[in-house]
Amino acid sequence: MSRKTLNSSKGTKGKICGRLAVLPSMPLDILLEIFGHLRPIDLLQLSRANKALNKIMMSNSGVSLWKAARRNIPAFPETPGDMSDAEWVHLIFETNCHGPGCKKKGIRKIDWALRIRGCERCWKENVVWSGRFAQQFPELELEVMQLLPYSSTGGWAYRYLSNNQFYWRPAILALSKVLDEYTKNIQLRKPGAEAAVNAFRKVQAARAETAVKYASVCKAWESDAADNRRKTLQILSDDRIHEVSARFMNLGWSSEHVEELKRHNLVRQSKELTERVWVNIRPQLEKELQKRRYNRRRTDICILFEDYLVKNWGDGLRNLFWGIIDMIDIASLKDIVKTDGTHDLSPNELDQCRDLLPAWADEWLEWARKQILAKIPSTVEEPKETPGNSRVELATSTLTCCFGHGPQYWPEIVAHKCFYNLKFPQVVYDPGLSAIIQSVVHAVGLSPDVATPFQLDAHDVRLKCASTESCVTMGGMSWRDAVEHCSTRHDGKASPSWCLDRGVP
Ligand SMILES: [Zn+2]
Ligand SMILES: [Zn+2]
Ligand SMILES: [Zn+2]
């Protein structure tokens, strides 16, 4: 790393300078006392803040300061002999890419053998696979490889190559430059030149070997440190969840309600819950708790209402859940649902709802009747025997859903989502469907002027289609199947004709 990199954080320099100006004049033991609690990265930043401090930190007397800072991080790996403390700390704490000229930050992975961080692009450009060394550096002898540390992982571009060696191009170039100097001296026949290059090679080879060995020590430390950090964060997060839960339970919420908050991103954080944070997050969490409470209260009323409808109007109105949920927003029960507090529906409130249900159901069904009646064109003659509103209950008054959901019989229609959704009323009267139903009602043996789906169900007659030759075998149909069959299979192309299917009990 160049000196320029070490002095790169200019932004904070001015501010810190004033306050730190006095530090360098202090004796080393006092500095040790003051800096004793700092982490290595703090020391690195201090060294950039002030020229005099930088001088101390890079000098021999700075060694004890770095040592003290390293001790503040458990098992922090010692600075390798061929690197300065500042370079080592820069590698471990700062995420800059070490590729030539690259300004990328946030590179998470350290290559401990090459002692660099490299972005994907710089890796691709600068990593040299041992198998291509000769090809890429034809002017260098292969022995040069033994003087350089190597990584055993080549990154994404070389992911299929295992047990190989990867070298860092800038390191190769730097070494080759030094070797050139030595060679020049030998060519100039300088005294001791040969011995000097041999000594240099020996030292380099030893360093390379040490670097590769030390890499595994550092990797193990890195992985332990990451584990410990994960554990610490988990503990912090658990504590915060626990604290938030306890506070809401003190405010009257039950443990089940609070349980639902545990995944909330304001709760599940690895940060201490200070008073200030609590004041900030409380309103949003309370809103969430109230929203869930509102949904539960609404659901409880829906279940109550469904039971009532099924009891009074038959099983066709079961599973209306979602339909009723929407209805509650326009009904008088809203006030009960929205009552302030932290509790779910109390037995008292449930009784109140039960008292309100009959009137509410009447109101709802009355609304539904009006909607249906408005859809039946005035040209359709009113049956003499069943005039007025109850006319909508006739099988022949059945509407059909334009979204392909087929005929919607009374009373199930009130629960059909395309019907009660006032924004998209897509259920219409279809004279063709009405004619088919009329034919089926006749076949069953009832009068279309009075027959309701309920009566037709009660008759439980099986029909056979006789509309076309090919359909004669279609037997065993309920009246509803018959309507469905005729409207989908014949689609108005053949006039409906039925006979009773006596083959089926
Ligand atoms: Zn890069
Ligand atoms: Zn529909
Ligand atoms: Zn048919």
Automatic annotation (TrEMBL):
Domain F-box, first and last residues per copy: 20-69
Protein name: F-box domain-containing protein
Pfam families attached to this UniProt entry: F-box-like
Coiled-coil features, chain-numbered ranges: none
